[in-house]
Amino acid sequence: xxxxxxxxxxxxxxxxxxxxxxxxxxxxxxxxxxxxxxxxxxxxxxxxxxxxxxxxxxxxxxxxxxxxxxxxxxxxxxxxxxxxxxxxxxxxxxxxxxxxxxxxxxxxxxxxxxxxxxxxxxxxxxxxxxxxxxxxxxxxxxxxxxxxxxxxxxxxxxxxxxxxxxxxxxxxxxxxxxxxxxxxxxxxxxxxxxxxxxxxxxxxxxxxxxxxxxxxxxxxxxxxxxxxxxxxxxxxxxxxxxxxxxxxxxxxxxxxxxxxxxxxxxxxxxxxxxxxxxxxxxxxxxxxxxxxxxxxxxxxxxxxxxxxxxxxxxxxxxxxxxxxxxxxxxxxxxxxxxxxxxxxxxxxxxxxxxxxxxxxxxxxxxxxxxxxxxxxxxxxxxxxx
Amino acid sequence: xxxxxxxxxxxxxxxxxxxxxxxxxxxxxxxxxxxxxxxxxxxxxxxxxxxxxxxxxxxxxxxxxxxxxxxxxxxxxxxxxxxxxxxxxxxxxxxxxxxxxxxxxxxxxxxxxxxxxxxxxxxxxxxxxxxxxxxxxxxxxxxxxxxxxxxxxxxxxxxxxxxxxxxxxxxxxx
Lengths: 385, 174
Hints:
The complex is a heterodimer. In chain A, 46% of the residues lie in helices and 14% in strands. By secondary structure, chain A is of the alpha+beta class. In chain A, the strands form four sheets. In chain A, strands 3-4-5 form a three-stranded antiparallel β-sheet. Chain A has a three-stranded antiparallel β-sheet with strand order 8-9-10. In chain A, strands 1-2 form a two-stranded antiparallel sheet. In chain A, a hairpin with a 5-residue loop joins strand 9 and strand 10. The longest helix of chain A has 29 residues. By secondary structure, chain B is of the alpha+beta class. Chain B has a single domain, classed as 2-Layer Sandwich (Beta Polymerase, domain 2), CATH 3.30.460. In chain B, 30% of the residues lie in helices and 25% in strands. In chain B, strands 1-2-5-4-3 form a five-stranded mixed β-sheet.
């Protein structure tokens, strides 16, 4: 009898697609969402993937090119659109890069408000991920619960900034406004609900036999692979590496908050899911700490010269922040004019989605590829900025 | 970071040291020494994490600036290595053997700026711009308006100004 799987030479499977033993199928790009804006070209044998190739380019909007031809403040409404689940990180990094090049310090109160905004957006994005990850393994109910909770968090954003998804709240020089009256009580009551939901997730998701059997051992990223593939964020922390930018290179007021870096040693999809689930508790805790410690008085915006005629001194800077997927970074080069010379966005899932996914998908059951993508938290618009 | 720069100077002809933030520095290096320098930084100095590779188009000086940003997880510091290459003949040594994700960056740079990395796997495959025939679009002399006018036909548009439209449709006798 012929062997079922093709022979491997130099780390690559050698097989003849015309032999009728193998099948080429495309996953995506039909589905609107995290996994659907890119497509995977899968060669399968039975129901096992033997070769995977990622294709992107379905969501290219040319942000970096657009930014080169706009003034700094005109680029501002663009940057948040690079990442739908987590626009605030983009706003924060763009504003910080401009401030670093201008060499100005924002008021203390603005720093606290920015931290609060970033943590809240991390929570919203993690909740959306919970929906995706549980849905990918057939638990549609958990997905709906998660998205309901996310919607409550978006309500908070709407009350605070006037917008649900793209807040455009952190502008160069500070933030756009103060917390509305009564917001804090509303926020605390919603956080209570989210915490209750997370306790339920433990029972229905992490103790679920199907979820556990499908995720344990799926997509193993060893600590040696992390640097070789450029993996960041929960993927690195799921491999027992203590890396969190909020701790390592503290920005804003993270050095004044009390938290521990969450790590798991499982290295697989289950461990990464647990990292994210525990980080949701951490986010809730951080938001409560911020509300307790935040100064209630003081300016939240710096007086800048007329922003439409603002010329930024020549120089270059790289700024980074910890998003839900890991290290988000902006590299900004200025040539002294009113327009940025170049803005490069380092999307955290750039390395995950192309190099790492192609490597991990080999040998995986075709039904688990979707869950693997969500476990790496790939997000195509970050790849094709 | 100044100490690191002095150490590097003993082995490589690095220049243009600048430090925009406390734990972040940028240096320049020639194209020939770039691969040895990055290998040295990764293996000896602990800059194991490649953050990004990008290109800045200095059209006026007719050169490309390739920036490799490396991060050290022990000292939590960044080092940006800048390599200037000719704009008319953009060739750069490939580093796909150092990090796995480099080939993706190089594919993107090849497509967006037309930089050639000899030996980089899958370099010629289209990544984002499938069936693109124009010049590399991220170059600064690429005229987006001219390209779209030449490539796509103009679709005439019915303009219904509310005032005019209502006048014609609702009160034609007036």
